[in-house]
Specification:
Elements (H helix, E strand, L loop, with lengths): L1 E6 L2 E3 L5 E9 L7 E6 L6 E6 L5 E3 L7 E6 L4 E6 L8 E7 L10 E5 L2
Parallel strand pairs: 2-10
Antiparallel strand pairs: 1-3, 3-8, 4-5, 4-9, 5-6, 7-8, 9-10
């Protein structure tokens, strides 16, 4: 069983920054690409940033140049540095494997508004 715990969300004004962290524990298949997803009400989680087992990042078009994903394989942690946040980034953010496991963590809320 894999446990995913996200943290670091909050409320910021447009242009602000947040740093999200994810701690993964349990039987994680290795090597496993991992990613950050976000979900808005009424929609499925959407992958916004991913990182391969070798550390190569990929980003969705809407966050490229503003978000940076990184991982510490030894600690099984994945972080998402989010800069220049926009109101459209408001969502619940989750980390998961790519493709995602059937179970999700509790997520962390990110709210961007003036």
């Amino acid at each position: 069983q894999v446990k995913l715990v996200e943290s670091g969300g909050g409320s910021v004004q447009p242009g602000g920054s947040l740093r999200l962290s994810c701690a993964a524990s349990g039987s994680i298949p290795t090597p496993s690409p991992m990613g950050w997803y976000r979900q808005v009400p009424g929609k499925q989680p959407d992958l916004v940033a991913g990182i391969s087992s070798r550390g190569g990042p990929t980003y969705g078009l809407s966050v490229k140049g503003r978000f940076t994903i990184s991982r510490d394989k030894d600690k099984n942690t994945v972080t998402l540095q989010m800069n220049n946040l926009e109101p459209e980034d408001t969502a619940v953010y989750y980390c998961n494997l790519i493709p995602p496991l059937g179970s999700w963590g509790q997520g962390t809320q990110v709210s961007v508004s003036s």
